[in-house]
Backbone:
């Protein structure tokens, strides 16, 4: 079976031809997990490539648990498991339902609507000086700024602190990439996802909760520290855990989605021109960008019992990994799946996951995408490649570090 595990496989983007071959020939296949500089050899995992199988695994926690081994492909350090299991992402029902209610209230449509104007204004401010320019690095000058400023705004923390969020997410998600590892200059390659490597983030969360308990604001942190579940508020540990999840899950994802969407439009000038001519297509355009260039590559579950999927036997305790980009190009679910069409309707992509863990902040991510894609297509008659993209080395997100583009007003 081809390798879909090593980060190097993703160095030039998603290997869609390999995914297609696997989806057609062995849609549930056993994958080796060789040692990497950042991790020892693992036991291997099942790679799930079909849209319907990805949906089934994601919506069936009674068989495929998020809790048993967490949701990251790589097995966590056993010492970290209790901590990871107290994070929403790594919970199963009924515990998951209780915690999910707390956070989904903070992402209510009314709360998201309140952030819409901020995001729109911020995008407009970032785009204005670019209209005087011929080229820009759209990642550092636009998309990272939008993602990080939105995150700090909705969390109600100072704008300057976005540099901390950039660093935390790079440590947790970008640890395969040498730009974000070896941060202490010792050449030591460390898996920095462990809570022991994130003491500064946990301390920041502790101080922030303390501040917002005494000085409530109009932000998600205030909503969280004042939320109640079963007649009690969140403990410090529960809050810090939510903070960790928001700081990371709401960061690299959008930072990957926005350049990915712009690259898709840039590679299809007819679709760019169509969106510019008919801005009312923004809703389907955002969904097509998410389908065609999904920011998250995979998430993991662990089989709780012996089971079968697409006729393949899966043993209790096996790792099962769903590949969203493969599902999003499944011809069983989408007509001409390799064609990028911003008017596409029909089956839904799985870029936000599916089932009980489906992204709780999808509306916030979509709002950012609407403003960026709408703003760029309004401001520029066309955009073009002005250099190869500099990608984050990762098998988990399709992150981008730099992307030079040429701008035509
Ligand atoms: C385009 C951007 C985004 C993408 C593609 C994305 C993708 C995902 C996916 C695939 C999951 C499901 C994980 C699973 O099934 O194991 C998820 C869950 C989650 N996302 Fe997002 N996400 C995005 C933006 C955000 C943002 C902006 C935030 C917060 C500010 C956020 C917070 C969360 C949280 C808290 C969960 C856990 C939900 C649960 O376990 O019930 N995401 N996201």
Residues:
């Amino acid at each position: 079976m081809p390798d879909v595990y090593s980060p190097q496989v993703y160095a030039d983007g998603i290997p869609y031809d390999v995914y297609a071959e696997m989806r057609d020939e062995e849609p549930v296949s056993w994958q080796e997990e060789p040692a990497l500089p950042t991790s020892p050899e693992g036991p291997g995992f099942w790679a799930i490539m079909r849209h319907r199988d990805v949906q089934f695994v994601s919506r069936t926690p009674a068989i495929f648990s998020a809790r048993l081994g967490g949701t990251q492909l790589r097995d966590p350090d056993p010492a970290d498991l209790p901590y990871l299991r107290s994070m929403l992402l790594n919970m199963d029902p009924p515990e998951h339902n209780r915690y999910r209610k707390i956070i989904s209230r903070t992402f209510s449509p009314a709360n998201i609507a309140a952030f819409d104007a901020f995001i729109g204004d911020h995008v407009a401010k970032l785009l204005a000086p670019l209209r005087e320019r011929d080229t820009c690095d759209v990642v550092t000058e636009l998309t990272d700024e939008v993602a990080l400023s939105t995150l700090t705004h909705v969390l109600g923390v100072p704008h300057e602190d976005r540099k901390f969020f950039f660093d935390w997410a790079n440590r947790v998600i970008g640890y395969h990439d040498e730009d974000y590892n070896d941060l202490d200059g010792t050449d030591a390659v460390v898996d920095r996802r462990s809570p022991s490597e994130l003491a500064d983030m946990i301390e920041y969360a502790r101080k922030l909760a303390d501040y917002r308990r005494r000085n409530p604001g109009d932000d998600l942190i205030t909503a969280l520290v004042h939320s109640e579940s079963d007649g009690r508020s969140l403990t410090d540990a529960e809050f810090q855990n939510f903070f960790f999840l928001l700081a990371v899950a709401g960061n690299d994802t959008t930072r990957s989605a926005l350049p990915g969407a712009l690259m898709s439009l840039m590679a299809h000038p007819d679709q760019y021109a169509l969106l510019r001519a008919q801005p009312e297509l923004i809703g389907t355009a955002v969904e097509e960008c998410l389908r065609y260039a999904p920011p998250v590559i995979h998430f993991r579950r662990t089989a709780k019992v012996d089971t079968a999927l697409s006729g393949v036997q899966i043993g209790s305790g096996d790792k099962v990994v769903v590949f969203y980009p493969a599902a999003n190009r499944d011809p069983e679910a989408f007509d001409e799946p390799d064609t990028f069409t911003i008017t596409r309707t029909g089956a839904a992509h799985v870029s936000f996951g599916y089932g009980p863990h489906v992204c709780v902040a999808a509306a916030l991510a979509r709002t950012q995408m609407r403003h960026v894609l709408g703003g760029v297509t309004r401001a520029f008659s066309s955009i073009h490649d002005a250099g190869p993209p500099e990608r984050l080395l990762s098998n988990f997100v399709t992150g981008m570090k730099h992307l030079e583009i040429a701008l035509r007003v």
In short: The first strand starts at residue 28 and ends at 31.
